[in-house]
Amino acid sequence: MSKQQWTYRQSDFGTFSACPEQLRRKIYDPLPQLTNSDQTRGNICHAVFEDIGQRVLDGYVPLMDDVNSVAAWHVARMFPTVDVWNSPKERIEAAVYANVEGWFHDILPKLALTAVEEQFRVKFYETDEYEVWLTGTPDVEDAVLGTVDYKCPGSFRKKGNGKPGGEDWNHTRWDIQSHVYTWVAAHKDNDFDSVREFHRVEIVEGEHHWLTIRRGPDDWAALRDFVDGVVQVQRADLAVWPQNWTSYKCGPKWCEYWSVCRGKHLGDNPW
């Protein structure tokens, strides 16, 4: 008799951390997703990084004109799909071109690419009753650095000195993505004793902030405990999972399920 399989992306664990009930609804009661301009800015940048990165892997030496041409193609393709513009089109477009130029000049030359947007699906662990699998698509695998992941937010979180990196303290301690991706790298090499690096690169209007996060065996053991907690909640087949009201995302602006969850009692704009 085959075992039951549970498959997760690292973003599922992030959603669970923010609000377990939101993850339940995404799995079992998904709603059509509205596309906003912030997401589109990031999607276009990632598409350019992938396309140009793949050309590098194929042996082609791209020029800045190539980068801009690819960006223009993705802008024309994705802008018409935006449902909600949080910023003017001109500002989003300017940010896209600044980001891809900064990436081309300041980040790409530092990389020794071995893979771009290469999907994985690997077994994390199993019990007598079930298997747990992890799936995902890292932005970049580098021959020296390991996994590199790009983020293109609208602004940097600043430190007290005004420099980027205001969230470094938090990401170093609780970032789930770095736990998952470094474990996958260890699995790929069949070496679970060595510490691995995950590189989180934020790019905002052409400037970037580079954070290196290190994970090892103790982190991965803790990850297994966390993941098994998610599995046990899902296996319980509850009609409602715990809700996190303390998160700023629990509101009509950030949660697409607000109107059918807490909002059905409080209304569309209770505050």
Low-confidence stretches: none
Instruction: Find the structural class using helix and strand composition.
Output: alpha/beta
Strand content: 15-25%
> How many strand units?
8
> How many separate helices?
9
**How far do the termini sit from each other?**
53 Å
Write the element-wise H/E pattern from the N-terminal end onward: EHHHHHEEEEEHHEEHH
Q: Which outline best applies? A: globular
Percent in helix: 40-55%
Overall pLDDT confidence: 96
Instruction: Report the major sheet.
Output: 5 strands, mixed
Radius of gyration (CA) equals 20 Å
Strand arrangement across the biggest beta sheet? 2-5-6-7-8
Please describe the topology of this protein.
Blueprint: E1 4-9, H1 10-18, H2 20-28, H3 37-57, H4 64-78, H5 89-107, E2 113-116, E3 120-126, E4 130-136, E5 140-142, E6 146-151, H6 168-174, H7 176-189, E7 196-204, E8 207-215, H8 217-235, H9 263-266
Parallel strand pairs: 1-4, 6-7
Antiparallel strand pairs: 2-5, 3-4, 5-6, 7-8
Helix pairs in contact: 1-2, 1-7, 3-4, 3-5, 4-5
Compact description:
This protein is an alpha/beta fold and 271 residues long.
List keywords for this structure.
271 residues; alpha/beta; three-stranded mixed beta sheet; globular; five-stranded mixed beta sheet; 43% helix
Explain this structure.
This protein is α/β, with parallel strands linked by helices. The strands form 2 sheets. The chain has a 5-stranded mixed β-sheet with strand order 2-5-6-7-8, sandwiched between helices. A 3-stranded mixed β-sheet has the order 1-4-3. A hairpin with a 3-residue loop joins strand 5 and strand 6. It is globular, with a radius of gyration of 20 Å. The relative contact order is 0.16.
